[in-house]
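[09:14] KT: can someone run the structure on this one? pasting the chain below
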Amino acid sequence: MPSAPITILHHPSPTTGAPIPIAFLSRHGTHHEYAPHEVPARANIAALRSIGVRTVIAFSAVGSLQEEVKPRDFVLPDQIIDRTKGIRPFTFFEGGVVGHVGFGDPFDAGLAKIISKCGHSLEGEGVVLHDKAVLVCMEGPQFSTRAESNLYRTWGGSVINMSALPEAKLAREAEMGYQMICMATDYDCWRNTGEDVNVEMVMGHMKANSENARRFVGAVLDELSKEEHQEQVSAKHVEGQVHFALSTSKEGRKKEALEKLNWLFPGTFQ
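[09:31] RB: done, structure tokens below
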């Protein structure tokens, strides 16, 4: 089951005025009751695809691994380093069907380009929208050690969270466009000055970020709702890639595994 009920809203198109359906799903549950490793990401992505969603804009709090990314800044990452531990179900291709999809560019560059136009909606002294950032996704739910935090910096990490994976991988397998918008809340624990990251610090900056996030998501929805972006939003550029992903011969594909894939891609695998 998904982590929460899916809420359907309608956003008026700024070009036609027609109502465009928007699906909202709370990743960590209605009351934030799911730890990062407990989030049913596979069910979430499958449920969204089953109702016609083809583009996912995901929000996440992140720790900053670089001085220039300040708490309350926003970040559009373009790369991920996977530091999860395989605890979370991370693929739709298993149980008798093997598939491999490309993941060289884990986020959708077309979406990021459109979203980056909306940085003007952010308010607050010195608040910046960063792009071309490397996101480190760790297992959690504990925060990093100081040694880990400094290691990630040497790897070129820009920000760190516990939510991007397997969400982004599953969205790619499901032929959905995916872009994460990150909200910096702290400097993790790599700095020798200041307080190490803690929940109180994170929630304090999250509260301050919430108004900016509302403004930002409104501007993003306005932009994505324009008729000129409908091909991007419908994810035509990733459609059909699953046909080339399967490496299991037709004779070797298990019926139950195919039935699950057919639920995601009706009529594709008979």
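[09:33] KT: thanks! The mean pLDDT is 94.
[09:34] RB: yep, looked fine to me
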